[in-house]
Amino acid sequence: MIGAIGLEEGWRALGLCVFNLIGTLLLVVANAWQISFGLLPLGVAYLVVARYYRASSRELQRLDSVSKSPIYAAFSEALQGATSIVAFGATRRFGLEARQRLDANIKVGFATAAANRWLSVRLEAIGNAIIAGVAALAVGLHAAAHASGGGGAAMAAGLAGLSLSLSLSYAVSLTDFLNWALRMSTTLEMQMVNIVNELASGEGGRVHGAKCLAVLAGVA
C-alpha cells in the first residue's frame, strides 16, 4: 500500500513537471520562434542522455540492493551469534568482513553520485544552450532597434526584445524542469519494477504454499 501511494504521488509530480516544461517551452518558442530550429537537435541530445542515464540508474540501483543485502544478513547473524564470535576470538575477522561489505556498498554510492553529476552537467548544458540562443536573439533585436534610429521599426524591435526578455526569464528554469522530469521518470520506473517484483514474489510464495498444503493433505 505504501508503494502504491508513493507511485501515485510520483505520477502526479511527474505530470506537473511535464506540464511546466511544455508550458515553458511553448512560451519560449512563441516569443522567439527562431529558437525552434535549435530545439530539435537539443531534444535529440536530451533523449540520448535520458536513455543512457536511465539504463545506468537501473543497474546502479540493482548493485546497491545487491551490495546492501550481505550487510544486513551479516549484521543479523552477528547479533544472533555474538557470544560465539567473542568466545572463538573472531571479532577482528568479522569486523574486517563488515568493513569490506561496507566499502563495496560505498563504491556503488560513489558511482551513483558520479552518475548524478554526469546527468546534471549535460542537462545544464542543454538548458544553457537554450538560454544562450534566446539571449543572442534579444541582444540582436536590441542592437537592431538602436541601429534603426527610431520610428515604427525601432518600436517593433523594442517590443520584440521585451518579449524575448520574458522568454529568457522563463528559460532559466528549463534546466530544473528537464532534470526533475528525468529523475522523476527514472524513480517511477524503478518503483514500478520493485512493485512488480514484490507482486511476483508474493504470487510465487502463495503458489508454493498451496503446493505444500496439497502435499501435506495427500500425505495425511
From TrEMBL:
Keywords: ATP-binding, Membrane, Nucleotide-binding, Transmembrane, Transmembrane helix, Transport. The keyword Transmembrane helix applies. GO terms for molecular function: ABC-type transporter activity; ATP binding. The keyword Cell inner membrane does not apply. Pfam families: ABC_membrane. GO terms for cellular component: membrane. InterPro entries: ABC1_TM_dom (IPR011527), ABC1_TM_sf (IPR036640), ABC_transporter_C-like (IPR050173). Residues 17-190 form the ABC transmembrane type-1 domain. PROSITE patterns: ABC_TM1F (PS50929). The chain crosses the membrane at residues 12-29, 35-53, 125-145, 157-182. PANTHER family: ATP-BINDING CASSETTE SUB-FAMILY C, FI20190P1. This is ABC transmembrane type-1 domain-containing protein.
